[in-house]
Design goal:
By secondary structure, the protein is mainly β. Helices cover 8% and strands 35% of the residues. The chain has five helices and 52 strands. A hairpin with a 6-residue loop joins strand 46 (511-516) and strand 47 (523-526). The relative contact order is 0.04.
């Protein structure tokens, strides 16, 4: 009876496939032309009145209900195909299920492909193959996604079969043990939501998802979560394996994804894995450092990274990585750490707040220029674990060449935690705050420790002790080198001309000029006929005052002397004044 039923279903499906419902509108049709293509060769069918009734029934809106289906994948294994290209419809992966089904065809030429329990099903050595497999689903391979079933085998089969294709996850909770991505693919999830996620089973350790291929997979809208999972030992959410080929190997592209609550790292990328992109993603609640990257040329933008239990927010171990427009917050230790070889980093337009220790830490083993840029970031309430103990930016020993500019440093309130310094320099390090905004409530001790740093603030400017201040002028340039003006009184107060003259202005705007003498060596002249100078005489210096045409000096013998020529001897000229002792 079962075989007769299947034959009847196949007979009905034959009519539907060749389109009799569209061509047979009258009883005059006697046969259907055979398709000359070998793949679809079928014998002609005589249509008597009973057959015409079947065709008419198939043409109705409810006609699909008359076409038979294979109930499940396991039933498909019992059906032996006969003709190359023969097709069959499977209702679902499991009996009484509407998920994981599809249309399969018989590939007579394939003698070697392995049964993968989803897209290739072997029946008595013959291979049924699923049609239209560019868009894959875990349900094709038997995944249930009910939040409790171990879907490891189904998910791994789906990942393996989705190489160079797209794997689409339904809004379900897929539970699994360790999974491996072995080639480039796209995984499309159901968004950043806890009720639609890849979730490790209790007791899983090591790495939940490992990318072992040299190419870069792409994730969209995917959540990987270990929230409320029993983790007896450290477990990393996403692990990108080391590349030992010494070839430039990309890592991963992630858009609008979420990884959270792992006892290890949320994301760990080993050495030699480069050019990753994390865009509009969320990484939170790891116990160890949240994100650790040991490759170059990564771009992290518009991400939320925080709430580590014991670690840092982001740790970068290699050069030329960029973090921008992201929130780095409430990490137990530091917000961002640039380790020993992480030169030429770019940290811009981030919000770095409420981290337990420093906001940004730059470490180095070598006294070298780092080439980092820290620009336009917002710092709030770092040193949260102990107010006044840590700083917003910390440069370790011998760090040089870090551009720091345009950042804002503020606190939420007078009672909030605040850093010791905005910029803290370890021994031999150098750095300045150029154009950073802050006020006295932004720090506990001072903006910068030490006197080496230059600070150009919206309220004041301090030139560091090792800062060279230079203005280049030329003889044909009539503009002043430096001017201090009173804008309310609309007058100059002090001017340094391009000839090196200091010009002071009184309340009547009358100038008093101090300049190097054009005729007397080592002397200053004032435009009021007063000059001060010095001269070598008798192996000793003579300091003199020039008043008009007269030179006046102390001869070191208790006398004030005067002469019309510049003195070359202390006893030259006449005594103008003599002390009583002489």
């Amino acid at each position: 009876m079962k075989r007769r039923s299947l034959l009847f279903k196949s007979f009905i499906a034959t009519f539907a496939y060749i389109g009799l419902s569209n061509k047979s509108q009258s009883a005059d049709v006697t046969q259907i032309p055979a398709n000359k293509e070998k793949n679809n060769l079928r014998p002609p069918v005589s249509v008597d009145n009973s057959n015409f009734q079947i065709v008419s029934a198939l043409s109705k809106p409810t006609g699909l209900a008359l076409i038979g289906q294979c109930e499940s994948i396991n039933e498909l294994r019992t059906i032996i195909p006969e003709n190359h290209g023969q097709r069959i419809s499977v209702k679902g992966y499991y009996p009484s299920s509407n998920e994981g089904g599809g249309v399969f065809y018989y590939d007579e030429n394939d003698k070697t492909s392995k049964d993968n329990d989803g897209t290739i099903i072997i029946s008595k050595g013959r291979r049924w193959k699923r049609e239209n497999t560019y868009l894959m689903e875990p349900e094709f391979f038997g995944a249930k996604g009910d939040g409790s079933t171990d879907d490891t085998t189904a998910l791994q089969n789906a990942l393996d079969a989705s190489i160079n294709k797209v794997l689409i996850l339904a809004p379900k909770k897929y539970r699994a043990r360790n999974l491996f991505i072995k080639g480039p693919l796209i995984i499309k999830g159901a968004g950043r939501r806890i009720d639609a996620a890849l979730i490790p089973l209790d007791g899983v350790s090591g790495n939940f998802i490992t990318i072992s291929c040299p190419e870069s997979p792409t994730f969209y809208d995917l959540t990987i979560s270990a929230r409320n999972v029993n983790q007896s030992s450290p477990l990393n959410g996403l692990y990108i394996a080391k590349n030992d080929t010494k070839q430039y190997s990309p890592s991963i592209l992630m858009y609008n994804c979420n990884i959270n609550s792992f006892l290890g790292h949320c994301l760990l990328s080993e050495y030699g894995r480069h050019m990753g992109v994390l865009d509009n993603c969320q990484f939170e609640y790891s116990h160890d450092d949240c994100i650790v990257i040991n490759g170059v040329d990564w771009n992290i933008s518009h991400c939320a990274i925080g709430y580590t239990k014991n670690g840092n927010g982001v740790v970068l171990g290699q050069p030329t990585n960029r973090i921008s427009n992201s929130d780095i917050y409430f990490n137990r230790r530091n917000g961002i750490v640039l380790k020993n070889n992480a030169i030429n980093g770019y940290l811009a337009s981030n919000v770095i707040n409420s981290n337990g220790e420093h906001g940004i830490v730059i470490l180095s083993k070598n006294p070298s220029k780092q080439g980092h840029l820290i620009v336009n970031n917002f710092f709030f309430n770092n040193s949260k674990s102990q107010s006044g103990q840590y700083s917003n930016i910390f440069l370790s020993k011998n760090i040089h060449g870090v551009g720091i500019t345009g950042n804002s440093h503020f606190t939420y309130s007078e009672q909030s935690e605040r850093p010791k310094h905005l910029l803290e320099l370890d021994d031999g390090a150098s750095g300045s705050l150029i154009g950073d905004s802050f006020d006295k409530s932004s720090y506990m001790i001072s903006p910068v420790n030490g006197s080496k740093s230059t600070i150009i603030n919206n309220e004041y400017t301090t030139l560091g002790s090792e800062t060279e201040f230079k203005k280049i002028v030329s003889n044909d340039n009539s503009k002043s080198a430096f001017i201090v003006e009173n804008t309310e009184a609309r007058r100059k107060i002090l001017e340094i001309t391009n000839r090196g003259e200091f010009v002071f202005y009184d309340h009547n705007n009358s100038p008093l000029t101090i300049s190097a003498s054009k005729i007397v060596d080592n002397s200053l002249e004032l435009n009021c006929s007063l000059a001060i100078g010095s001269n070598e005489a008798d192996h000793d210096k003579i300091y003199f005052l020039k008043l008009g045409d007269f030179y006046i000096w102390d001869d070191s013998a208790g006398n004030i002397r005067i002469h019309t020529e510049q003195p070359h001897s202390k006893t030259q000229g006449n005594i103008l004044y003599q002390t009583k002792s002489h």
